[in-house]
Automatic annotation (TrEMBL), chain A:
One of its GO terms (molecular function) is ATP binding. Belongs to the ABC transporter superfamily. InterPro entries: AAA+_ATPase, ABC_transp_ATP-bind, ABC_transporter-like_ATP-bd, ABC_transporter-like_CS, Oligopep_ABC_C, P-loop_NTPase. It is found in: Cell inner membrane. Residues 7-257 form the ABC transporter domain. This is ABC transporter ATP-binding protein. It comes from Aminobacter carboxidus. NCBIfam families: oligo_HPY.
UniProtKB/TrEMBL annotation, chain B:
One of its GO terms (cellular component) is plasma membrane. Its main location: membrane. This is ABC transporter ATP-binding protein. One of its GO terms (biological process) is transmembrane transport. Belongs to the ABC transporter superfamily. The keyword rRNA-binding does not apply. It is found in: Cell inner membrane. InterPro entries: AAA+_ATPase, ABC_Ni/Peptide_Import, ABC_transporter-like_ATP-bd, ABC_transporter-like_CS, Oligopep_ABC_C, P-loop_NTPase. Keywords: ATP-binding, Cell membrane, Membrane, Nucleotide-binding, Transport. It is a peripheral membrane protein. GO terms for molecular function: ATP binding; ATP hydrolysis activity. PROSITE patterns: ABC_TRANSPORTER_1 (PS00211), ABC_TRANSPORTER_2 (PS50893).
């Protein structure tokens, strides 16, 4: 791991103002991402996990300046990119790409696969029109599709093939960094494994850095170098894959890991489960103090009042929990 | 886990065949499925999208969409053929003796009806309760599925509840009339893992209390490992393997089952090691290959696999493990 991070996320905050009530007469704020800090190192896969509504996708979007951050910084190549307007952002766009979850709605149905993949190349003037077919067929080859697919339309392709096209498009301008936003979640198990293998191969071949946003912990455990766990807009824990899965510190991480079923009937029979009570509170009115305290099995008075500090307890292992700070987390 | 009674299954599906009308003519999507569910048994029906797992179950309660029709087979439930019984008889079964939990509670609950009224409906219809009795029972059911403050929640509309809560309401509706069989179609797919764990726990607990049979339809093999007694693996509208859960995970025999199990990332994997994956994609309805439907994706396929369809045959030396694969069957014969 390089000492200098590729991307530095500092105190990133994203709030949405929404209108509630039948006539939108009441204003309210969704605290989607609140004071999130982490680094992404070149060549690594950092995963963000958490349940729906925890802010992991919003973090990915805001980090790429696809949504304006409410406050905070994202430093890439010495520049705070979230402060840039769209025009000044453009040179960075080439380096920072994203692959979305749903390969059915992210490809323009009226464009051929060749046009979909070639568009960013022409936009960033990375090749002439004459060179384009050659470039496109090489990209399709990279993602394991035959060159003749360039003439086809998205509706002629299966879900797995479409996701390959989305990856080819993201690769088209030779980016350094790709956000994979639930990029494999919509695929069937057997196809999912193909796409995971493809992402790993491409990372090795082109030295890519991934921010992998997912809710499937088995997949995350498989591909990540480091993993961040989010809960209601805040990072609860961030650590290397080994640290997080063998020695989770935050009570939420522990509960999350214990809720994941293992494909092993013998293990499942004897396994001790820690089942959380209740639902995730609304991000419209997150609880005071630690946001997890309403469901936390070891919550103390302090947790209901004071926001726990985000700190590094062991090298590379960050956590925000009062019980861990006091050494009382089991 | 209780040993299922073998004598007479509660549900016995034989040779079920379902067709869909397409512009190019009728296409088979479920091809001669055999499936049994014993009293008190929990069976997992596993397969990828489009394998026909949901349609199979919908056909049992005759809720198939318009262009999809049952073309053959029988489905005996407690000795009566569901596919041929009269509409009035069927109404007694639906929601009465067979409870259904659908995948998406947002589209399966009526958005303009309070959840209490939706819960009371089957009770008044099937159990001839009066309104007050039904209300008491509805509160009981909501409490049973772990909804806090059921007396207040009963007047809520579906949109006022979270996804997990809505799914609990769906389960409560499925259970309302103490069904003998609960069919759950991907009931946790739309939910987060911590909520999924709550729901799985709930169903495990309830089936014990009510001695209910359960069919759990899913694409998630890991999920059913700790939940079901027996698993039927579906591929392109056929059952390719059927075995007790421990046996299936310990000795998967069909190349498709093996491929599926191998493509799930495991605890013991090295980081970023290559997952084994199955090449290609399942056939579309109407484009089913001749012979074994898995043959075009199968690394072991031989000439015979492209010609004839293998039957579901017992695995030598096993108890209740059956597989539909020429190669696996031949290898077993040679080994025996």
């Amino acid at each position: 791991m390089a000492a200098e991070p590729l991307i530095k996320v500092e105190n990133l905050v994203k709030h949405f103002v929404v209108r509630l009530g039948a006539f939108g007469e009441r204003g309210a704020t969704v605290y989607a991402v609140d004071d999130v800090n982490f680094d992404i190192f070149a060549g690594e896969t950092l995963s963000l996990v958490g349940e729906s509504g925890c802010g992991k996708s919003t973090t990915g979007f805001t980090l790429l300046n696809l949504q304006k951050a409410t406050s905070g910084k994202v430093i890439f190549q010495g520049e705070n990119i979230v402060s840039l307007d769209e025009k000044r952002m453009r040179p960075y766009r080439r380096e920072l790409q994203i692959v979305f979850q749903d390969p059915y709605s992210t490809l323009n149905p009226r464009m051929t696969i060749g046009e979909v993949v070639g568009e960013p190349i022409l936009f960033h003037k990375l090749a002439t029109k004459a060179e384009l077919p050659e470039r496109v067929s090489r990209l399709l080859g990279d993602v394991g599709l035959p060159a003749r697919f360039a003439q086809r339309y998205p509706h002629e392709l299966s879900g797995g093939q479409r996701q390959r096209v989305a990856i080819a498009r993201a690769l088209a301008c030779q980016p350094k960094f790709i956000v994979c936003d639930e990029a494999i979640s919509a695929l069937d198990v057997s196809v999912q494994a193909q796409i995971i293998n493809l992402l790993l191969d491409l990372q090795e071949k082109y030295g890519l850095t991934y921010l992998f946003i997912a809710h499937d912990l088995a997949v995350v455990r498989h591909i990540s170098d480091r993993v961040g766990v989010m809960y209601l807009g805040r990072l609860a824990e961030l650590a290397t894959r080994e640290q997080l899965f063998s020695n989770p510190l935050h009570p939420y991480t522990k509960a999350l890991l214990s809720a994941v079923p293992e494909a092993d009937p013998e293990l499942e029979k004897t396994r001790q489960r820690q089942i959380l009570v209740g639902d995730v509170p609304s991000p419209l009115s997150p609880p005071a103090g630690c946001r997890f305290h309403t469901r936390c099995p070891i919550a103390m008075d302090k947790c209901r009042a004071v926001v726990p500090e985000w700190r590094e307890v062991v090298t590379g292992h960050h956590v925000a929990c009062h019980a861990v700070d006091m050494g009382t987390a089991g | 886990m209780t040993a299922p009674e073998i004598q007479k299954p509660l549900l016995d599906v034989r040779g079920l065949t379902i067709e869909i009308e397409t512009r190019r003519g009728p296409a088979v999507i479920v091809d001669g499925i055999n499936l049994t569910v014993g009293k008190g048994e929990t069976v997992g029906v596993v397969g990828e999208s489009g394998c026909g797992k949901s349609l199979t179950m919908l056909s049992l309660v005759r809720l198939l969409p318009n262009k999809i029709k049952v073309k053959g087979g029988t489905a005996e439930f407690a000795g009566r053929d569901l596919l041929r019984m009269s509409k009035s008889e069927l109404r007694q079964v639906r929601g009465g003796k067979i409870g259904f939990v659908f995948q998406d509670p947002m589209t399966s609950l009526n958005p303009v009806m309070r959840i209490g009224d939706q819960l009371c409906e089957p009770l008044i219809y099937h159990r001839s309760m009066n309104k007050a009795e039904a209300r008491t029972r509805a509160i009981e059911l909501l409490r049973l599925v772990g909804i806090p403050g059921p007396e207040q929640r009963i007047t809520a509309y579906p949109h006022e509840l979270s996804g997990g809560m809505r799914q609990r309401v769906m389960i409560a509706m499925g259970l309302a009339c103490d069904p003998e069989l609960l069919i759950a179609d991907e009931p946790t797919t739309a939910l987060d893992v911590t909520i999924q764990a709550q729901i799985v726990d709930l169903v495990k607990d309830l089936r014990k209390k009510l001695n209910m049979s359960v069919v759990w339809i899913t694409h998630d093999l890991a999920l059913i490992a700790g939940l079901v007694d027996r698993v039927a693996v579906l591929y392109a509208g056929t059952v390719v393997e059927d075995a007790p859960v421990g046996e299936l995970f310990a000795r998967p025999t069909h190349p498709y089952t093996r491929g599926l199990l191998a493509s799930i990332p495991k605890l013991s994997d090295e980081r970023a090691s290559r997952l084994s994956s199955i090449g290609g994609t399942p056939p579309e309805p109407g484009r089913r290959p001749k012979g074994c439907p898995f043959a075009p994706r199968c690394a072991l396929a031989e000439a015979v696999c492209h010609e004839r369809v293998p039957a579901l045959e017992p695995v030598v030396g096993s108890n209740g493990h059956r597989v539909a694969c020429f190669v696996a069957q031949r290898q077993m014969m040679e080994a025996a």
